Amino acid sequence: MTLDEGTKFFMDNWYQGEKPSYQEALRGTFDPGYIVYSLGKLMMLKLRHDYQEQIDGKFSLRTFHDAVLAQGTAPLWAHRRLLLNETADASLE
Description:
The protein has 93 residues and is mostly helical. The protein has helices at 3-13, 18-30, 33-55, 61-70, 76-84.
C-alpha cells in the first residue's frame, strides 16, 4: 500500500480529514509498534465477532466489554479460551 493509498484508506474508514489520515499512514511506515497495535485491534474485533455469534441474540457491547475486563490483563489467546471455550487459537482465522 502506498502512502497515498494509506491516506485514502484512513479517510474512508477512520472518517478523519486528509491531514490526520496522512499522518496516520505515515506513522505506519516507520513506527515498529504500529503493527502490534493493529494486530491487537484485529484480534479483539475477531474475538468480539466470534463472541457475538456464540451467544446469538443476547449480545451487547457492555456485556462483551464486561466479560473481557473481568479477565484482567490476560493475553488475547487466553480471552478466547475463557470467553469462547476454545482449545486452539483461532485469533485471526
